[in-house]
Batch of 2 targets.
Target 1
Amino acid sequence: MAKAPDFPTRLLRGYAAFRDQRLPLESSRYKVLAEAGQRPRTMIVGCCDSRAAPETIFDAAPGELFVIRNVANLVPPYDPDGEYHGTSAAIEFGVMGLKVRNIVVMGHGRCGGVQAYIASRNAPSDSADLSPGDFIGKWISLIAPAEALVCDDPAETADAQRALEFASVRKAIENLRTFPTIRSLEEIDEIELHGAWFDISTGELYVLDQATGRFSVAATPIG
Amino acid sequence: MAKAPDFPTRLLRGYAAFRDQRLPLESSRYKVLAEAGQRPRTMIVGCCDSRAAPETIFDAAPGELFVIRNVANLVPPYDPDGEYHGTSAAIEFGVMGLKVRNIVVMGHGRCGGVQAYIASRNAPSDSADLSPGDFIGKWISLIAPAEALVCDDPAETADAQRALEFASVRKAIENLRTFPTIRSLEEIDEIELHGAWFDISTGELYVLDQATGRFSVAATPIG
Amino acid sequence: MAKAPDFPTRLLRGYAAFRDQRLPLESSRYKVLAEAGQRPRTMIVGCCDSRAAPETIFDAAPGELFVIRNVANLVPPYDPDGEYHGTSAAIEFGVMGLKVRNIVVMGHGRCGGVQAYIASRNAPSDSADLSPGDFIGKWISLIAPAEALVCDDPAETADAQRALEFASVRKAIENLRTFPTIRSLEEIDEIELHGAWFDISTGELYVLDQATGRFSVAATPIG
Amino acid sequence: MAKAPDFPTRLLRGYAAFRDQRLPLESSRYKVLAEAGQRPRTMIVGCCDSRAAPETIFDAAPGELFVIRNVANLVPPYDPDGEYHGTSAAIEFGVMGLKVRNIVVMGHGRCGGVQAYIASRNAPSDSADLSPGDFIGKWISLIAPAEALVCDDPAETADAQRALEFASVRKAIENLRTFPTIRSLEEIDEIELHGAWFDISTGELYVLDQATGRFSVAATPIG
């Protein structure tokens, strides 16, 4: 039977700080975007990880980023089988309903989902921390096809987990292209797909060069 | 065929602002939580909506909030059928892997997912904006059982969409309690479930009183 | 730089409950055993696990149990090399200083230390949750020699982790016998060694029959 | 050669009392925390002394306290030299694996370990009760650096052993801060360190005010 605990004080204090400091600066954005509807240009597919918040990393204002967050920032391949596909539904909502211009798949370092996948791959019969659950093992099995996209550059494979985090971003972008609408929109230059990876240890942002397939530290725009 | 577009300049500028202004203040948090692992106390189930970013609304530091975001902040009922359940997997990861203490389902005003559900319910044969897609219609059908939880208070039902947004938060909390581990942990006071709703027009935060089932504007903590 | 946080409220409340309810019943024991010194008859080597507190499981009064708790209730073999051996020092203190009559090694189900050992054995190169630390990997490597004591009874090996938990208790008792003083005292019937295993799920206590090497549910004493 | 003595009757009776009286009240906690894993918020570093059981003193439920117990509740300084460090391994397990929020070092009055240290210091060539052992003398030599932290307040130094017991708690907290992960987590307010001292004669609990470095009787929380 459920009790009725108080709302967490830490969150109430955080909200009070937002209300007193940031809200006054953004109140017209909130008001206008409430009336006119949201118009984000960018969709982010990010991870639930508490250290990788897209709005923080991109210093985003209210209304800028439409954000999907699941474990390990995965995009399943297009598979309209009538089941409940939360990520695919959100992608569809952003692309068709909100008409976003960019989709950024953003991975990050020390991802617990990728780590759990590696652990389960290395010891499939093992009672790893996360494997006994009902859902997480199945979900992270979506990472498996990304193994084929691990780069053979020694500089990249030296860190096996990071190499797979990179590869998983590449695979998610491939999977976005299995959505017919996205593939078609990309062909006529109406939508752009991007990959990024955030180093939660140093705060560095890496971006994917799709011509070469390589990640490198983001250059700062001039001016 | 994929081109290689430049990474969006707006995001690079935003990242540069983060890197130059906020990162220096948080660099030790990032570094420590990279080494020691994340330790969030709170999981948020929020909406992808660009105007309802949990880290912004709760003024959260890196590492504080484990955040799931899907369209309309839905929690499907527990259903371990071997399919890919992104939201359920993320809930499991947060509860069992990260041992979060609180789960907050946060709805918000003018939710496009709830709006699409109402449109499809009112005009089932209609070709509403979002219905022709392959996934979104199925996903938002998860809202239907929430209708039974709409409150009959005239003050609440005066705004039919908001009333359903409130009800959907109540239903998501009910569905969280269909996860055996969560229900069990709640019974022994090891986890708390909460509901909230953010008014994107005014910036007001409402919290759910589970004893009465009513939402009201959050009181500010003292001190 | 250290702040000066308040002492955790939960602990202060727990202490107040002890002081108001149990202390009055035990105050003479505390007072006498403070003056006369402690005289425990039993030493427990238990695990740090929060679900396996010896005083709780054995309903012990103050002064009854001298308790060593380390990860996975391990006893290293006798090795007087001049290093800091916390467990061996405590064993020595109990046997020689306090003259305990019994030593009970108490394992328990779902032991995180045994689980981590199994994970590291199955995937030695893996970045398992606990392996990157500086100490835990080395400590749990003390479990390895217990593998030779896993029983070949199918009823026992069906649960591989529990089988190793049992075997580790057997090994800890073997290691206690590598301490010359303990071995000598046991030979003249001045000290007894015992093994037990607590099922944290059901609350059942298993005891080791050293004649057969098997664990079975503890029989209740009559009268 | 090992005999097969019966399991001590006193322990079986104590277990029967636990099983018949307390287990029914806590069976859901045991069951849930077996399935979901332990989630203790607090780690206690306590002494093996039979009169200073943390679960008793803090009236703790199963799953609340992760408890390390060694002679004199010592924390060695961080020293990752590849040896078997049971206490350091347990600290690491609690901080990194279980993500505990508080670490409490709890000393107590009339500590046999501190007493033995004082005896060996005062009469180094003496054959004190405990000195001839192979391990205890070395272990309690870890107390020596605490002498520099004895307070010069006459009220405190009047009881020389208690003064050193207090100082040893202070030193253990200092040593916890030599663990890089703990120091870092404390700096970002993700972990709290506390000191306490239990008077086994009267049952009074003292807590350390780290701002002043002084111990005083714990105030009871209100409400």
Target 2
Amino acid sequence: MTQTNRQILLVEKPTGKLLPQNFKMAEAAIPEPKDGEVLVRVRYISLDAANRAWMHGATYRAAVEANTVMAGGGVAEVVSSNAPGFAPGDLVFGDTGWQEYAAVKAKTLVKVPHMEPMTHLLSVYGIAGLTAYFGLLEVGKPKSGDTVVVSAAAGSVGSIVGQIAKIKGCRVVGIAGGKDKCNWLVSELGFDAAVDYKSEPVFKALKAAAPNGIDVYFDNVGGDILEACLPQMNNGGRIACCGAVSQYDGAPSATGPRGVPGLIVVKRLIMQGFIVMDYYDQRQKAMADLQSWVKAGKLKVQEDIINGLENTPQALIGLLAGENRGKRMVKV
Amino acid sequence: MTQTNRQILLVEKPTGKLLPQNFKMAEAAIPEPKDGEVLVRVRYISLDAANRAWMHGATYRAAVEANTVMAGGGVAEVVSSNAPGFAPGDLVFGDTGWQEYAAVKAKTLVKVPHMEPMTHLLSVYGIAGLTAYFGLLEVGKPKSGDTVVVSAAAGSVGSIVGQIAKIKGCRVVGIAGGKDKCNWLVSELGFDAAVDYKSEPVFKALKAAAPNGIDVYFDNVGGDILEACLPQMNNGGRIACCGAVSQYDGAPSATGPRGVPGLIVVKRLIMQGFIVMDYYDQRQKAMADLQSWVKAGKLKVQEDIINGLENTPQALIGLLAGENRGKRMVKV
């Protein structure tokens, strides 16, 4: 066990696109857990578009500050505990930050079971899988036969949303960047169609892929793609607002999508934001469903694992550029 | 009884602001009701911001066309009937258009009771009152103690929304144009506060008037005022999208409100459009509630009645400019 704790600091908040120089490596002493804290060794760091949004502030958590360890969720192992209920060897999920060791308040940690592969705790059985599950089923509320469209469809959440929608008997159209991803969605994950926003005009391609209109749009991106979906929503359609990644990596947009609120009125749409934590009381049922689908081979788990703490900044920058397929994480 | 039917035609669809020259008076023969039709004499024509939206098309009804009688709802008396269930002397509500007589398909007409004053059939017991009732209670779903904000608050729908919200124990803030309207909302209708969007910066004035944030925003206007409300919504807040009058009288806006979908996600908002017809199965309960509140003096009915069919175009132009207080209609 090394005696130092390697960390990655956010040295300045980006104003435009996130850059490697916004971060730096640092070393610190391994912290002592205070009363009510647990010392953990971080095994995998979760990379999420939301990490970038936290830098703007005004999200569901406090803004990340310059010159501190970059915030981020991770799966970690308890090294020593100064809090009841946690013992060395326990596995936990929490906001460990981008570092090797962290002293974390026990009440912010969630105990998770040991499993093989451990990475599934961050993908299908982690926030990504639960976000897809609750966002689609509790917010989007698709019925069998509905047309479901999902953006960032090859990402950690989108790839699971589309597969759950297929399990529920829907026609599923994914929107993703690049032919490879689009082919993968259709041939590997069973989507009915995919729209490549990098090479096709989205509005027109969607019209062809969803000729009966859209009943449920699971929105991970906001911006132009939300604007392209709005006029194609069917009356009474539902838009599950999960994220707005098109808006995160730069200055906040000065405008919103055309058609709000006009189309929301005339089409009687429901547009609803959600945060996965709001549904944690139904977590057990969600886990049971996800596990049964994975076991039955109906839900394929795609992970994108990058080695080495030092590569975390580049891993996030790449994720914001749409490099990843499935759940991206860093093995520390 | 005159032998001619005076009518107002829409001679061209406006591209910018609606103007008197977009209309002209005409005369036609009184029509004969065909099989399944009813000949009615129009008594009162309802003026609504939606009339202007119909000229754009892409609403919940067919676009109004140039060189036809301008569409519009009205209360009318049956003159002769060629359809079962309707007899001379019956009172009906339907899309009679801007004219003295109309032959209307019976299945599009709703029979309404004779009452004094008859104008209440277009205000509190008409679409305005029902829109306020269902939009607030079924879409906005306010709880006692909630802060409810309503825009176009001195209008036909807004003035009723605010009063129902008070009846339900909410803190009510109205947004309206002009000091007179704002004073009237507070002193006559019992609103807790009012924001004059013509003389105050809306974001700041709202912050002062709704210091605990907004739980329910009943949106009649869209645009900048929706944008000002979004960041002040409380987590889990609900936006009832009733109309977007700020967007109707001119070319459709090329952008939407900033904060969509970002703030919808992080605040877990529900933004929901509705059309009053979707709730007609619950109409009896709504009518009973509205009548009991009017009788008890808890719900004041404000009407703005203009005389003469020939003044209908100017009445609509004035309504779009925010001239009216309460329900505007034309006595034919």
